[in-house]
Write the structure tokens for this entry.
Amino acid sequence: QVQLVQSGAEVKKPGASVKVSCKASGYTFTSYGISWVRQAPGQGLEWMGWISAYNGNTNYAQKLQGRVTMTTDTSTSTAYMELRSLRSDDTAVYYCARGPSAYGDQNDYWGQGTLVTVSS
Amino acid sequence: DIQMTQSPSSLSASVGDRVTITCQASQDISNYLNWYQQKPGKAPKLLIYDASNLETGVPSRFSGSGSGTDFTFTISSLQPEDIATYYCQQYDNVVTFGPGTKVDIK
């Protein structure tokens, strides 16, 4: 069965960086992209971007350009999202999700979420 | 970026009621729209893709329709387990989510 398992919660100071991992299983990793979505406490969903696991191409949300980097390791079927220069308003639950792909642009499987807290 | 609006922002309905949520895009997005359900403390779950296609395993009481700028999501008979926040998502240009509609039981 398809599973996306994310790394554990993180507490970071303002200005630091965080790197969240998302290990995929149960499907051919390179056949799908991995999208990243975050949700601040009590707020809605915010799309951060996605990476093609096939060729590493990325597409980032404009507001995060220059601070976010998404990568994949096809040998371990793991995707990573690194966010730099953290601010308090980056405090959120970060989700990875499968898709898009040649089969469609929907995100059909999601990780369990990783809480990142930015606090001095 | 394309802006998405949803209405209502919240609603309260009785078990068995028909519930309708609308989602409007700031420009034509054809049928490039998905609907997700999110329960508190959980990850979102895909319900409808490409505006009207029911995801495998999702109960048939959920449905979606629309194209262009105006979309509708319907629960034909509200069940207690449907208490959640529902989000539309467009993927025509970059990706944006609607602000969500919180559904609870009256």
